[in-house]
Amino acid sequence: xxxxxxxxxxxxxxxxxxxxxxxxxxxxxxxxxxxxxxxxxxxxxxxxxxxxxxxxxxxxxxxxxxxxxxxxxxxxxxxxxxxxxxxxxxxxxxxxxxxxxxxxxxxxxxxxxxxxxxxxxxxxxxxxxxxxxxxxxxxxxxxxxxxxxxxxxxxxxxxxxxxxxxxxxxxxxxxxxxxxxxxxxxxxxxxxxxxxxxxxxxxxxxxxxxxxxxxxxxxxxxxxxxxxxxxxxxxxxxxxxxxxxxxxxxxxxxxxxxxxxxxxxxxxxxxxxxxxxxxxxxxxxxxxxxxxxxxxxxxxxxxxxxxxxxxxxxxxxxxxxxxxxxxxxxxxxxxxxxxxxxxxxxxxxxxxxxxxxxxxxxxxxxxxxxxxxxxxxxxxxxxxxxxxxxxxxxxxxxxxxxxxxxxx
Length: 408
Known about the structure:
The chain is mostly beta strands. 9% of the residues lie in helices and 45% in strands. The chain has 2 domains: 1-25 and 354-408, no CATH class; 27-353, TolB, C-terminal domain (Neuraminidase). Strands 1-28-27-26 form a 4-stranded antiparallel β-sheet, with no helix packed on it. It has a 4-stranded antiparallel β-sheet with strand order 2-3-4-5, with no helix packed on it. A hairpin with a 2-residue loop joins strand 12 (160-166) and strand 13. Helix 1 (2-18) packs antiparallel against helix 2 (366-374). It is globular, with a radius of gyration of 21 Å. It starts with a helix and ends with a strand.
């Protein structure tokens, strides 16, 4: 099945180059906010992780507390924001990822010092703590549909170690060089990515771990560090590296496939590119920032070799999308931005030109057909589920054929 999936995605990429490779979808935007705080309006919210059911994990500022006191949440379109049940006295909590079973992972801090944090798995109202083997620090960063959790902890030394956690059993990913390792993401094949080294800004290398074997992904051309931030189910990895420049040492992001690096590029007027997530169609999201103007960020989406500012794809000009941190296989994005009034987590949903135009190029054709085949089966909320029954199947295939040609 994996080889079939690889073949289809390769064909999609090949045809995309000849049929509107720079086509990008515009997006509908859904604001994700809790009830307003008395006298202060809605608290700021931030979206970090998204699953295939377009459910989002994130955090929001708490009413009545000082700047930066965050509460982890889990959002669904049906129920809205649900604050996760944390231990009494929790100062901060963040939810970073959610799988298709609604299992949420992140960390909470009771001491309020930002160091004595504990990773968690939250299912409904049930919270399970992921304890460090020694010391007082653990943080869960990502979870697969199989329930494999990855993150970072301490082992009694002053150095961080990446971990894989499943059903109460923790496996440390010990660095093969340097003294530290941090894990950022895991896919459905059990492949874990992150970085190893002495320090992220000195000598870090991106790595991939699977079944106890560590693979050094090397360094991108021109970079002297490497940090893997995301991996998809084809084993394609997003890697960020520091590159010397006249403005200083700047982050640039790359797509790693089988040892080859592709530079994602950078938006005009910006200096850094920080990519955070990738889906199985090799769509990548993140943000760019300037080195000369503080707090100047803008979110981007990259596909088929083209980097595009997300704000150019949002018809509502009152909305500014600053950060994009998660993308699912339907192309839906977990982001954060503001509308001039409040900062909010955002759900960005691609708008097709017509039913079946999966690549948003104004034409239903071979790339859309191959894209539909690539997601055949149960796919709730996917644009290829044209009849809305939660499954991409023969009825959707026939509907796509019925719309073949240029969108009206």
